[in-house]
Structures are given as structure tokens and as C-alpha cells.
């Protein structure tokens, strides 16, 4: 898989990834605008705006008009919001790329932001917040990052707070877009069965021309920047969200590195060893050997200036302390450089990572997101084969080194959701 990259005069970056065997194509617009760019008065607006983009434009006045057009070409459309980006995409048959770009540009340039629709959508957003509150398996990630990053935009929920959502006005949306939605802060990625071979200048030129037709008149302006995150932790931290649940959900993790740090791949392999799949260390120790949890998994997550390796689990409420003790014990082995990784285990962890990457990129939407994320947030774009080589290049010595470097008391954190109030007991357990 190869990509071509070019830019419009207004700074908008255009990336094309021809996938000749595909009958579909995805066009994705990703903006360097997410919840970390918000403040106390508009927290949640990035996600709210994503909803409003589909509610009507000057050319297509209603949500039904937009949906009918996409349905009429057999397509699908959606959007997503993170802490550092927002993405809007349409996927359809490969012959509909121009229509897709027309719709996406119309939504971003000419959204009506009708006050009546805004008021209606507030109820939808609030119900979405309620939904997440009732899904502790998902919510535990938010609680964990609140523990890590505190009362800062990085520590706030992406969906926002209900009272703030209720107060947002059309003027707030306009002001927010005028602070971040500049073409130089955006990239358009087109992936799938577009004409031409990988890396073909002809297909790149054709797509650039189409993107220019629909996005070229956008004017660039200076955008706001996110405040750098200042991390300061001297001892393990515990945060409990007491809630009536049938299962206790926990997140145990350590502070690590930013998205462009050279330790990224060794940490990812370590994460795979700990909680990547049903044969991983934690899954075997916590679930298979002791029956203490239903799910156990780990991930290494990075932002532009911070990161964390975290393990999550759904635990039997009667044996919470037992499960946490086992997980902390495994973290202690990492900290001491005593994981004693076998050659078989090491190879399996790498193949797990590589296999999941390959499977993920079998869809043109996933491919477009893969390249857009790198373009907006990382120092360089790597093709999948280059990332596979990076994973292959990690050594056991590197994994041991990053484990001893980052699995330390001063960076250890535990978040919990469920029927549990004994914070002191957890604080006594969470020590490496």
C-alpha cells in the first residue's frame, strides 16, 4: 500500500491511496480540532459540532436531504471526535468520489447550524452522555484519563458536561469553527478503488483537482493552539467512581510517552505481551488461572505530548482486591525487568500486533483514518509495511528497558467504577 500527498494553495493537504481491487472509496476530512482545544465554557463543542454537520446546509437544508443523497448512492457517512482531531467521512461506490467531496465540503463550509436543530440535538447529546454513563466498560477510559490529566481539557470527557451542552449557542459553534477549521489545519484523504495504481501521479492529480474544486475556496487563518500538558505525579494515584454495577471495572496504568517518541514501538509490544489477546500474560493470570475477571486487555495510547500504557478489566465484585493484586504483581515484574519473555511469547505478541493492523486496513475507511491521523499528528507518514518492520525490529532488551523506565511508582494510576468505596485498601495495593 502506497500513498501520494499534495497540497492546495490554501494549505489543505490531500492524500490519495489507490486500492485497485476495491469497488468502494472513502473520502475523509480530518481536522486538527478536538476536545483538548476547548475551555470551561464550551467543553463538548467539538463532539456537538460533529453532530450538527449532518443537520443541513444552505444547499441541502435538512438532515433528510443529506441522508437521502448518501442513501441514493448506496453510501454510508459518519463522523468521530477525539481529543486532538475530528473526522468526517463518506464511503460509497468508487464512481461517486465527486459527489462525496461535494457533500463533505458543503457540510464543512455551509452548515446551517440552525438554532432550532441545535436545541433538538442537545437532547440527543445528553442521551449519548447518559448512554456512556451506563456503559462502565467504555466509561472507565474516561475516568482513567480524568485521573491522569485532572481538571484540564485532556482530563475532561469528550462528550462534555450536560449543563454546558445545554448552554451552547449557534454563535459558539461559529466562533469555534473560526478558531480551528482553517484548511491548513485539515487534511482530505481519499482511499479505495480510485483509478490508477498506487503512487500514480495521474490519480493524485485528478483527486487534487476534485478536492480543489470543492475545498479550494476556503480561506486560511491563524488557528488557536492547545495548552501544553504539564504532568506532575510523585506517588501512585487512585480514583473511584462509585456506581451500582454488577461488575467492577478498573483501569491500571502508567504514564509513558508522546506520539512521536522512539519508545513507542517497544511499549506497544510490551502492551501486547501484557494484554493483547486471550493468551496474554494478564488474561492468563487474571482470568484463566484464577477466574477473577471476564475481560482483561492492555493498550499503549499516545497523544501529541503525553501517553499511557493501561490495562483494563471487568472484575468479580467480591474479589476486586485479589484481581488488582495479581495485575500489580505483573506490573512489578515489568518494573524489575523480570518478565522473562520467551522467544515464543515475544514472537506471538508481535504477530498479534501485525495481524490486527493488517485486518484493520482491509477497509477503505480505516485506511483513510490511518493516513489522516499520521498526517495531522505525527512527524512522518509510514506505510503499513514500514510499521510492520518497526514492530519486527523491537528487541526483548528494548521491551525490558522501557518496562523498567516507565513502570514506576511515581507514574502508577488506578481508576475504578463500581460498588466499592475502600480507597485506602486500593492505595495499599497499588505499589510496585
Layout of helices and strands:
Blueprint: E1 4-7, E2 13-18, E3 24-31, H1 45-52, H2 63-72, E4 76-81, E5 86-93, H3 97-110, H4 115-133, H5 136-149, H6 162-167, H7 170-180, E6 186-192, H8 201-215, E7 237-242, E8 248-255, H9 264-275, H10 281-288, E9 293-302, E10 307-315, H11 320-335, H12 343-360, H13 364-377, H14 384-392, H15 396-406, E11 412-418, H16 423-429
Parallel strand pairs: 2-6, 7-11
Antiparallel strand pairs: 1-2, 3-5, 3-6, 4-5, 8-10, 8-11, 9-10
Helix pairs in contact: 3-8, 9-12, 9-15, 10-11, 12-14
Model description:
The protein is an alpha+beta fold. It folds into two domains: about 5-215, Metalloenzyme, LuxS/M16 peptidase-like (Cytochrome Bc1 Complex, Chain A, domain 1, 2-Layer Sandwich), CATH 3.30.830.10; about 235-430, Metalloenzyme, LuxS/M16 peptidase-like (Cytochrome Bc1 Complex, Chain A, domain 1, 2-Layer Sandwich). It is about 45% helix and about 20% strand. It contains 16 helices and eleven strands. It has helices spanning about 45-50, 65-70, 95-110, 115-135, 135-150, 160-165, 170-180, 200-215, 265-275, 280-290, 320-335, 345-360, 365-375, 385-390, 395-405, 425-430, and strands at about 5, 15-20, 25-30, 75-80, 85-95, 185-190, 235-240, 250-255, 295-300, 305-315, 410-420. A six-stranded mixed sheet has the order 1-2-6-3-5-4, sandwiched between helices. The chain has a five-stranded mixed sheet with strand order 7-11-8-10-9, sandwiched between helices. α9 (about 265-275) packs across α12 (about 345-360). The longest helix has 19 residues, at about 115-135. It is globular and about 60 Å long. The two termini are about 45 Å apart. About 45% of the residues are buried. The mean pLDDT is about 95.
Amino acid at each position: 500500500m502506497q500513498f501520494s500527498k499534495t497540497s492546495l494553495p490554501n494549505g489543505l493537504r490531500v492524500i490519495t491511496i489507490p486500492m485497485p481491487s476495491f469497488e468502494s472509496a472513502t473520502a475523509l476530512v480530518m481536522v486538527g480540532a478536538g476536545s483538548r482545544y476547548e475551555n470551561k465554557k464550551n467543553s463538548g463543542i467539538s463532539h456537538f459540532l460533529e453532530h450538527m454537520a449532518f443537520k443541513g446546509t444552505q444547499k441541502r437544508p435538512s438532515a433528510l436531504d443529506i441522508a437521502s443523497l448518501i442513501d441514493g448512492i448506496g453510501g454510508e457517512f459518519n463522523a468521530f471526535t477525539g481529543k486532538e482531531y475530528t473526522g468526517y467521512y463518506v464511503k460509497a461506490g468508487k464512481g461517486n468520489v465527486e459527489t462525496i467531496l461535494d457533500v463533505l465540503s458543503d457540510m464543512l463550509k455551509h452548515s446551517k447550524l440552525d438554532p432550532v436543530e441545535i436545541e433538538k440535538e442537545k437532547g440527543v447529546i445528553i442521551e449519548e452522555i447518559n448512554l456512556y454513563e451506563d456503559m462502565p466498560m467504555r466509561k472507565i477510559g474516561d475516568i482513567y484519563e480524568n485521573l491522569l490529566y485532572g481538571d484540564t481539557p485532556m482530563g475532561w470527557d469528550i462528550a462534555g458536561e450536560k449543563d454546558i451542552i445545554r448552554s451552547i449557542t449557534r454563535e459558539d459553534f461559529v466562533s469555534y469553527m473560526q478558531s480551528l477549521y482553517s484548511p491548513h489545519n485539515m487534511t482530505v484523504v481519499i482511499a479505495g478503488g480510485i483509478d490508477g495504481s498506487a503512487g500514480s501521479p495521474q490519480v493524485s492529480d485528478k483527486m487534487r483537482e476534485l478536492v480543489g474544486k470543492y475545498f479550494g475556496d476556503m480561506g486560511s487563518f491563524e488557528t488557536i493552539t492547545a495548552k501544553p500538558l504539564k504532568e506532575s505525579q510523585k506517588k501512585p494515584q487512585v480514583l473511584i467512581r462509585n456506581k451500582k454495577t454488577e461488575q467492577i471495572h478498573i483501569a491500571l496504568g502508567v504514564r509513558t510517552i508522546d506520539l512521536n517518541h522512539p519508545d513507542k514501538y517497544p511499549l506497544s509490544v510490551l502492551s501486547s505481551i501484557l494484554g493483547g489477546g486471550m493468551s496474554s500474560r494478564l488474561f492468563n493470570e487474571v482470568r484463566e488461572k484464577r477466574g477473577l475477571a471476564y475481560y482483561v486487555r492492555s493498550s499503549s495510547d499516545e497523544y501529541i505530548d503525553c501517553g499511557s500504557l493501561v490495562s483494563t478489566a471487568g472484575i468479580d465484585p467480591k474479589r476486586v482486591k485479589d484481581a488488582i493484586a495479581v495485575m500489580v504483581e505483573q506490573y512489578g515484574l515489568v518494573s524489575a525487568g523480570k518478565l522473562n519473555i520467551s522467544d515464543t511469547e515475544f514472537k506471538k505478541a508481535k504477530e498479534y500486533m501485525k495481524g490486527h493492523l493488517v485486518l484493520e486496513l482491509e477497509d477503505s475507511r480505516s485506511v483513510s483514518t490511518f493516513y489522516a491521523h499520521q498526517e495531522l499528528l505525527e512527524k512522518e507518514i509510514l506505510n503499513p509495511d514500514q510499521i510492520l518492520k518497526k514492530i519486527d525490529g523491537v528487541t526483548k532488551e528494548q521491551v525490558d528497558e522501557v518496562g523498567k523506565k516507565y513502570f514506576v511508582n511515581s507514574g502508577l494510576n488506578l481508576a475504578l467504577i463500581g460498588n466499592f468505596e475502600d480507597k485506602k485498601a486500593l492505595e495499599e495495593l497499588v505499589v510496585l
